[in-house]
Amino acid sequence: MExxxxxxxxxxxxxIEGKPYIFDVLRKKYVLITPEEWVRQHVVHLLLxxxxxxxxLIRSExxxxxxxxxxxxxxxxxxxxGKPFLLVECKAPQVTVTQQVFDQIGRYNHxxxxxxxxxxxxxxxxxCCVDYQLQTVDFLDDLPRFT
Length: 147
Prior knowledge:
- This is Type I restriction enzyme HsdR N-terminal domain-containing protein.
- By secondary structure, this protein is α+β, with helices and mostly antiparallel strands.
- It has a single domain, classed as tt1808, chain A.
- It has helices at 35-49, 99-112; strands spanning 13-16, 19-24, 29-32, 58-66, 69-78, 84-90, 116-120, 125-131, 136-140.
């Protein structure tokens, strides 16, 4: 797989019917390695290993309903009270992060109301803090640590 602008991590892979799969520590099963999944796995391990997020508070590939449509959030982290804290949208490395991607995570976060959002294609990363009372979005230099 492609080298990313994210820390490397130890992972397990195997072939199933001639296709590469990677073990997802959150879903506790092997999942097909796509370019987007490769980015998602890197981000999950970044949150666990560098930022101290508990595995039990991270949901990968969770469903949500948006205007009667079923959608999936890539990564959603909850705080200790079970409220959405950090929403992550992962794209494949060849996908350019555009305004459309920001609009997509904005629509998803309209449902979740997480105070932090992250967008990454594994090469370029954006982290924002959303203040719902002031209706502002501020770009941050780093992801928030779990407290």
